[in-house]
Amino acid sequence: MGFGIIIGLMILLCFYYLNGVLDDFISSVNSLKSVTSGNLPKDPSLPFLYIAALLIIIDQIIKSYIQGNSPIIFGILAGLFVPIIMLIFGRFPTYYSWMVYIPLSVVVCSSMEIMKFRLKNQISILILISLLLTCMVGWPLQIASAVNYWNDRDYERIENLVVSKICIKTGWSLLRLRCLL
């Protein structure tokens, strides 16, 4: 996983360099380090998902099933280290919480299948309660937030940025960062 991240980062930086925007990218990342608001995800359902993952690990330890390359270990480690690494190199705003949420959700669900989920098991019941709380707390609050901030979503600044960076002379363009004409 680490090797893939390094290769991907190198390809991205080469792409930016070849298109002449590497300095812009670096300055934008460095400027974000000074922004303190919005640094951590505010999704209230994420702790319940972590609890479900930890309960699965406890169940696997009790059954002597846990292994170092277990998907649930990957999910927990990704859930912990992705935000930490992003905070070190920039910031980890709420809209990046999918980087934790999706891998953790996938491994929790796949691990539940592996553990032969049964409602007679107390840990299984606690996992189910954690997942229900994840859904019952997170989804309504995300919908309420979207409705509350609906009018604050102004895409004019993004449209202006796109117009200033992309040159469309012929009516179509896949990607043109600098106008050469």
Automatic annotation (TrEMBL):
The chain crosses the membrane at residues 44-62, 71-89, 95-114, 126-150. Keywords: Membrane, Transmembrane, Transmembrane helix. This is Glycosyltransferase RgtA/B/C/D-like domain-containing protein. It comes from Planktothricoides raciborskii GIHE-MW2.
